[in-house]
Amino acid sequence: MRIMLSNNSSTLSIPEHGLPQNVILSELETKLENDFGYASGKILSSMCTSPHRFARQVHQKYIEKNLGDPSLFPASAKLEQETVTMLGSLLSNPSALGSIVSGGTEANIIALWAARNCSKIEHGQVIVPISAHYSFDKACDLLNLKLIKVNLNKNFQMDVKAAKRALTPKTVAIVGVAGTTGLGVVDSIGELSNLALENDLYLHVDAAFGGFVLPFLGNLGYAPLDFDFKLSGVCSITVDPHKMGLAPVHAGGILFRDSKFTESISMNVPYLSEGQQKQSTLLGTRSGASAVTVWALLKHLGRVGYQKIVKSCLELTWTLANEIQQINDLQLVTKPTMNVVGVKSDTVDVNVVFQQLKKRGWGISLFEGYLRIVIMPHTKLEHIKNLLEDLQEILHSIKSEK
Ligand code: 0PR
Fold this sequence. Notes:
By secondary structure, this protein is of the alpha/beta class. It is built from 11 helices and 13 strands. A 7-stranded mixed beta sheet has the order 1-7-6-5-4-2-3, with helices on both faces. The longest helix has 39 residues. The radius of gyration is 22 Å and the shape is globular. Ligand 0PR binds next to helix 4.
């Protein structure tokens, strides 16, 4: 992306005397014009969405809360733990422990931090599928762990046999993904759980995206998938309220099966709370508004509310997937498991299709060999129809140029 910087340095300096708010607001309006907005319906590349109206209200009201200092905000800290308990109950373990963190990246780093500290192995190795989010590359780099990436099977899931072959005495953790970034695929977490138990290894499940989708599949008539604490080998789960949870950025979640994992990363804060304070997050000062907002949203929407949101995203996903299958030049990479659709082509170059879509103002992601379309709560049927029309026109123009 090209970032435009004004040459006029005076516009970039702090003004000597402050400007009126209305002047600044109108300048912001102009300066931010080039950003996408969820309401336009053009964003199909994001796993975040427009925060729920109630979430905006709660977030603004409690903006000053700081979970970095529970001696000042003990009630917010208690609500954070209640939020973790509610998320734990969504993921089959109401006694889960953990934190509301800044997002999936921090959650994944914290998980591997715990895995590393719980093992006594020096320079340990972590096994992930090649479909894992790049936050694991960051985590391993930071934690001095070696990342071992294993291939996928024909269903785009981690090849469990390959994972087994990759085990060494240095292995400290296995990571399974429940809703991959590219295709929304869920690894065979049941098999990974067995593998972890057999080898006494830490298993982390990255359900940053899937954690708010998969628990509802069965009730909605889709094939249910086991991925959470129900499986006894699962030690920790990433689940992000700022993705399908409709919370504002930042709101990620890291949940642990039991206290030995949280204790392994717990740091004492000697000068706050008379030395009684412990932290097991990367951040010190951190948003209490985020945790309070997730608490409020879970209470307001309830399971039924979230299920309705998932239902409508999945229905739209299938509308899109079925239409794609009717288009001669396009194919699905795989049948969608969740609200993510991968689109490829045997006949036209998807890079060209991507460039054309971009020109028409669509926010779509280009993965190696396919386009990723994420159907989030801000996406409506008319947006899908517009996309399909544009796709047809683009394909027509590409073919007529040949
Ligand atoms: N784990 C998985 C499975 C993810 O898909 C992501 C991000 C993460 C972890 C990391 O989460 P944070 O970004 O909260 O740290 N998935 C999205 C993606 O890479 C993130 C995203 C969101 C990207 C909105 C673009 C965007 O507009 O596609």
